[in-house]
Amino acid sequence: MKHSVDLITMGCSKNLVDSERLLQLFAEHGYATYHDPEEVHGDIAIVNTCGFINDAKEESINMILELCNLKEAGKLKGLYVMGCLSERYRKELEEEIPQVDKFYGKYDWKQLVQDLPAVEGGKLHRGRLLTTPSHFAYLKIAEGCDRRCAFCAIPLITGKHHSRTIEDILQEVEECVAAGVKEFQVIAQELTYYGMDIYQEQRLPELIERMAKVPGVEWIRLHYAYPNNFPMDLLRVIRENDNVCNYLDIALQHISDNVLMRMRRNVTKAETEALIKKIREEVPGICIRTTLLVGFPGETEEDFEQLMDFVKRARFDRMGAFSYSEEEGTFAAKNYDDDVPEEVKQARMDRLMKLQEGISTELCAEKIGQVFKVMIDRQEGDYYIGRTEHDSPDVDCEVLIPVSEGQLKIGEFCLAEIVASEEYDLYGHLIKHDTAL
Ligand code: SF4
Q1: Segment 298-354, tens digit of pLDDT
Q2: Is 142 a pocket residue for ligand 1 (Cβ < 6 Å)?
Q3: Ligand 1 lined by 103 (C-beta under 6 Å)
Q4: Following CA atoms 5, 10, 13, 16 in sequence, which dihedral angle do they give, to the nearest 10 degrees?
Q5: Phi, psi angle pair for 317, to nearest 5°
Q6: How far apart are the first and last CA of the chain?
Q7: What is the pTM of this model?
Q8: Is ligand 1 within 6 A of the CB of residue 152?
Q9: What mean pLDDT value characterizes the chain?
Q10: Mean pLDDT throughout 1-29?
Q11: How many angstroms separate the alpha carbon of residue 224 from the centre of ligand 1?
Q12: Which residues does 217 contact at the CB level (< 8 Å), separation at least 6?
């Protein structure tokens, strides 16, 4: 009887890639593998945890405790925990949750396969068992971060930035394409720093340009760029290569010089605004996603009004926002009082998201009448659900195309004219199936 292993991934797409690599190894050693937090299959469960901010930590701990209950009820034989939370708090977790058979960190989870008796001679390699729809994959090009943003615990968990070699990444791309992947979400903690460690220079533009030349790569989308020392040649690569999406996710966090300085972001308001202007000049029509942080210690009403004014003027296509949560061990936790009251943080979050909702509604409406290449991800009821090159899975807008308009295949492209819109989603009329493109 095949042993089963349930791997539950918490947190970000970088964690997901680690989970996919571990699942692949289990599959190769005869385990039935599952990646569905809603249902466990009884033998071994592994939680790949997140330790980024309080909410994420709580979610991970609740998932572990839920599985402890299943184990105590005899519905689970083995329970293992890995990832960022146990990288950071292994000792405390071992003391507080003894029901867990063993804790692993961010990097030593490979040991897990050795520790499970059923695995003979398991040697980890690049293969991954994709948990995403088979037509797209997350491509992790580096791990760790050398920056020291005052609010961020990630460097404390992941350690220094270490890039994979261009050759290693391109080989993985070819393997993924051979497995049916057409679209790559390129990720790292700090994408634009790629290569600084192993090549002593930024090599992201070269990497992406070489990826774009790999046959079968249809879409490449870039995430987690940083505004300081931005590799400008990347904009030429995006502009000149049709299969590099006109899309850039660049986390700006704030705009007021007072707050940017306190956050230790090494970038000013003027530099940020000049960069956004340059990106839009160099790549007309580019879709910019950003992430902002409100309620950072010392953020005044005036600082926040500067942020609101910036968002109003910049009109980001996509925007996510967090409110500051103090993370022990960070520069901010050691040097600043968390002096912005929770209700003020929440009020600022609400105002910012309301403003962005209005902007997104207007920008979506401007797409009516335009024709887009759409990747079909799934069918839901009477609609096919897809995305344009401006939409990253799970975080951005979707295009809904009526099933009645024609037979579409999951993982295939089509052409659709936008006929209606909402705050974040678009409705499309099918123009052409993939084959006719
Ligand atoms: S660049 Fe990103 S991951 Fe690195 S310290 Fe700053 S916020 Fe954290």
Answers
A1: 999 999 999 999 999 999 999 999 999 999 999 999 999 999 999 999 999 999 999
A2: no
A3: no
A4: -10
A5: -70, -40
A6: 47
A7: 0.92
A8: yes
A9: 94
A10: 88
A11: 9
A12: 173, 177, 182, 184, 211, 243
